[in-house]
Amino acid sequence: MASNNFIDYVKVCCRSGKGGAGSSHFFRAKGLPNGGPDGGDGGRGGHVILEGNSQLWTLLHLQYQKHVIAGHGQGGAESLRSGAQGEDVILQVPLGTIARDADTGEKKVEITEHGQRIILTPGGRGGLGNDHFKSATNQAPTYAQPGEPGIEEWVVLELKLLADVGLVGFPNAGKSTLLSVVSAAQPKIADYAFTTLVPNLGVVAYRDYQSFVMADIPGIIEGAAEGRGLGTRFLKHIERNSMLLFMISVDSNDIAAEYQVLLNELTQFNPELLEKRRVLAITKADLIDDELEDEIRATLPTELPSVFISSLANKNIQRLKDMIWQELHAK
For the residues 171-176, what does the mean pLDDT come to? Predict the structure, then answer.
């Protein structure tokens, strides 16, 4: 995903259709001058519907569609004929999309499965024709219901990427390099901080034709929860990951301290992130020998599994995949 094509937040005005009016009509025919009421019902107004599409990764296609307007229902007619329903508008969105009320921030719907359809803004109900109001004491009702009005509301669509593994680390920790090695993704890689400005997704092939999805999240720095660096803009994508892969470079002055800083930033953003399974990968392990690796291993946090890897030298990459797979399927 190119940085200028990744859009994870859009605001749109949704207007559903109004319902058609019921008909107030009486049947008339030769030899039957006093036919009864036969007014049909009005059609409902069109809905605004969200539909999940697994082929979409961004809300870019909705960025400039500020108004979404569904069709109005048609009025009922004689001979108990119902009016046509208003045309629905179906918005295709990527999996992980949340719709919120723009004014209150309240969550309205959430799309998590391919083909899932949920009515975002319902159309107005069609009015009943006068046939519904006949009775023994009112055999010639002239009343028919008007259609209900549609709804106009501003809605925020927010995307939180769905991935099995989220890569967490400081800038230049080797997250993008790892993703490029284990998947077909082609994230931008360079020797300066904040190379990754938007999340990148990649499908990682595993044994026996199995796979899992990995997400490279832009680098975190100390104070990100208060807005430093790229702030919390992309931390929300970590909330949807099944597990977190912490990545710290082997040339760090204090790996345990860096891990604690990353953990603190995630805790300040959302304490529930601590409930996710975690794995620690020490990157760029091709820069050290076995003796130094043993010394560093003794200083690592003991509450999570860890592994020394090198994406360039392909060191322990398969072992890392095995650890990730084990954590993903642990009960």
Answer: 80
